[in-house]
Amino acid sequence: MGGRLILTARDIRALKGERRLAMLTAYDYPTALALDQVGLDVMLVGDSLGEVELGYDSTRAVSLDMMEHHVRAVANGATRTHITGDMPAGSYGDPRQAVASAMALVAAGAHSVKLEGALIPQVEAILDAGIPVMGHVGLLPQTAEGGYRKQGKTMQDADRLVAEAIALDRAGCFAIVIECVDADAARRITDAVDAPTIGIAAGIDCDGQVLVSTDLFGLLPDPPPFVEARANLRDLMQGAASEFAAEVRATAAPRLPRRTPAP
Ligand code: KIV
Known about the structure:
- The chain is elongated, with a radius of gyration of 21 Å.
- It has an 8-stranded parallel β-barrel with strand order 1-2-3-4-5-6-7-8, surrounded by 5 helices.
- It has 10 helices and 8 strands.
- By secondary structure, it is α/β, with parallel strands linked by helices.
- The protein has one domain: Alpha-Beta Barrel (TIM Barrel).
- The longest helix has 18 residues, at 233-250.
- 46% of the residues are buried.
- It binds 3-methyl-2-oxobutanoic acid.
- 3-methyl-2-oxobutanoic acid binds next to strand 6.
- Residues 25, 44, 46-48, 86, 177, 179, 200, 210, 212 line the site of 3-methyl-2-oxobutanoic acid (KIV).
């Protein structure tokens, strides 16, 4: 796969209707190094890192500093894959702050940024600064109250989501994540916009799919029910670690030099 060029945001937008897009999250150097070899379209340094890498109970615990740190690690490992940096909660309250935060993520190595919701002034300001933006509709973990519930189940809610996605599309987003949305509503959104949609728990009719990589790899004990883990890294790690510990304990205890008693 040597020599593959990084897809630009424009390339990715143009892939709608051509082929499906595959995006996975990555948060660190070794994962980025490994995933860079498999031909993903996008690596998302998601703010899900707060929950799945750092052990917080919400993405709201993630700061811009943390995102920069992890984007830098991923950019050190990925040289062929488009990297999108997630804008964390509190980093895009108004257009000026949004541009400064987006610039910080690009300086850390992201090719584009993602933000949650139809915040059109923020999206337009970031685009005016020359930074491509990925939209995100449906479940918005940074502001979700009362748990992660399926969105777009009523006609009215589906209409709202379609309207938000159309606004993001018209503003110029190069792709739009649809998270935890009823499959029929996700299909309506996908049909209504020119940008490719990338779904997670949103049915099979989106233009692409994204998963949180730790869920796909079986690294955490309780993955969400919609993910079919394709590996069991947790078992592999525990197996390797306990084998190591058993081997170390099976060898003779290290002989420490006797201290000569003081005269
Ligand atoms: O933060 C994240 O990983 C995300 C994906 C679930 C799309 O936003």
